[in-house]
Amino acid sequence: MNTQIKTILEQFKGQRVLVIGDFILDVYLDGNCDRLAPEFNVPVLDITSQQYCLGGAANVAANLHALGSHVCYMSVLGQDHNAKIAIELLKEKGIDSICLHFTTLSPTLSKTRLSKDEQLLYRFDVGKKMELDQTVMDGFLKDLQKAYYNYDAVYIADYEKGTINHQVIHLLQEMQEKCFKPIAIDAKQYDKYKQLYPLIIKPNHQEALQILKEEPMEDRVEQAMGWSKSMHDLSNAKIVAFTLDSDGVVISRKDHPLFHYKVSNIKAQNVSGAGDTFLSAFLLAHISGATDADAVQIASIAASVSIQKKITASCSASELLFALLTQKGKILDAGSVAPCFSHILAEHKKVVFTNGCFDIFHSGHIQYLQQARSLGDILVVGINTDESVQRLKGPHRPVNTLEDRMEVLKGLSCIDYIIPFGTIGNDTPIDLIASIHPAIYVKGEDYKDEHLPEASLLESLGIEIIFLPYVPHQSTTKIIARVQKNDQVKLKKIS
C-alpha cells in the first residue's frame, strides 16, 4: 500500500457526511427442516438463528461511520415494533447523529430472508413505500435545512421507497446554490437529481440497462464504456462509477478517458449492501483528496470485505486498512499490519501463531506447520530476520537468506501470513504476540520443559499454548552436519 493511500485513509476521520434516504430493516432467519406439519402436510422450518441488520440508507450510514467519518442519518420510520429495533441498531452502531421522523401511514420497511442451513429459500417484505403526510414532511425538511450546512458532503440513498420526494430534492437544490457541497447519489433514477450536479453516481449494470433501456451484451465492460456520454448527459454527474460485480468497475469522467478497474475473484457470502460500502468508501476517498484510481481501489477493497460476511454488513476502517495492506500476498510488515489482527481477524477467526528460523526447510517443518494450521482458522508464522538468526545460531547461519526462507513458506497452503521479526536486544516473538493476540500459540514439544520468555505474556493475555509432537532426527542442524560429514549423519524417515 502506497503512502498516499494511507494518508487518505487517515483523513476519513475528519470528514462529516449527511446521509438521507430510505430505511430498510434486514432480517435473517436460518433454520433446519426435518419434519412435516401434520395439519397441512407441508415442511416445518425450525428457526435456529435470527439476526436484525441495518439495510438501505441505514447501512450507508453504518459504513461511513465504520470507516471513521462523522455521520448524520436522516430517514422516516413507521410507528411500530420494527422502528424500535431500528433505533436500537442505529444506537449500537454509534452513529453520531440520528434524525428520524415517524409516520402513522406506513409500517417500517423490512426485508426478511429465510434460509435453510444457510441456503436462501425466500425473501418476504413488509411495506412497499413510505407514506408521509405534510406535517411529517415539513418537520423533515426543517431538520434537513439545519443539518445541511454542518456537513462536508451529502450521500443520497434513494430506493424509491418514499423518503426522498420532489420537496426534498427542491430544498437540496436551493441549498446547493447557496453553499455547494459534493453529493454522492445511489438511486434508481438519476435524471431527477440532475439539477444537483452530483459529484458521484453509482449505477450497477442492471440499473444502467433499465435506465438507458438497453439489452445486456456479452462484454459488460465494453457496454458500460459505451454508456459514458448518455449517463453524464442524463445526470450531470462529475463522476459515473459503473459497478459490474466480478467484472470490476468502469470509472467515467466527462471529457476524460475512461478506465476499467479489475477486481479479484472472491467468494461472496452475501452481496446485500456491497454497493453501499463501495460508494461510501469512494465518496470518503474523493473528499479526502484521492485520485480516481486510488478511490476506486479503496472502494473496491472495502466492498470485497463486506461481501465476505454472511449478513448485510459494513467495512470498518481497520478491516479496510488490513485488506489493503495484505492484498499483495502473505508477507506482512510487523509495524503496520500486526496491530490489525486483534481488531479484525480475532473477531471472526481463530488465529494460530508460531515462530522459528525455518532455515533449511525439511519434512519436519511441513508436518509441524500443517498440524498448527489444523488448530484454527488462520496460521500466522513469525520468522527471524537474518541478523536475528545470527545472534541465535552463530555467525555461519542462516544458510538461506530471509527472502529465500519466506519464499519457501509462501508456497505452503497451510500458512496464511508471514511476519519477519527480531531486533537487537529482543529476538523473541513477544512484541508480535502482544500485537496479534492469537487464540493459540504453538511450539514444538522439545520446548515443553524449557522456560519460554513469552510465557508470562501468554498467561496474562489468556492465550492457549499447545506443544506439538517433535519429529525425531529432523532438524536443520542435523541436515548441515550430514552435508559437512559427507552423509555420515542419517535422517530418519517419517512414517
UniProtKB/TrEMBL annotation:
EC number: 2.7.7.70
Catalytic activity from the UniProt record: D-glycero-beta-D-manno-heptose 1-phosphate + ATP + H(+) = ADP-D-glycero-beta-D-manno-heptose + diphosphate
One Pfam family recorded for the sequence: PfkB
Enzyme category, top tier: transferase
GO MF, any single term: nucleotidyltransferase activity
Keywords assigned: ATP-binding, Carbohydrate metabolism, Kinase, Multifunctional enzyme, Nucleotide-binding, Nucleotidyltransferase, Transferase
InterPro entries with a match to the protein in the record: Carboh/pur_kinase_PfkB_CS, Cyt_trans-like, PfkB_dom, RfaE_dom_II, Ribokinase-like, Rossmann-like_a/b/a_fold
Record keyword NADP present: no
Pathway: Bacterial outer membrane biogenesis; LPS core biosynthesis
UniProt superkingdom: Bacteria
Carbohydrate kinase PfkB domain boundaries: 16-315
Domain Cytidyltransferase-like: residue ranges: 353-481
PANTHER family the record matches: BIFUNCTIONAL PROTEIN HLDE
Protein name per UniProt: D-glycero-beta-D-manno-heptose 1-phosphate adenylyltransferase
Species the sequence originates in: Sphingobacterium kitahiroshimense
Lineage summary: Bacteria, Pseudomonadati, Bacteroidota, Sphingobacteriia, Sphingobacteriales
Name of the gene encoding the protein in the UniProt record: rfaE2
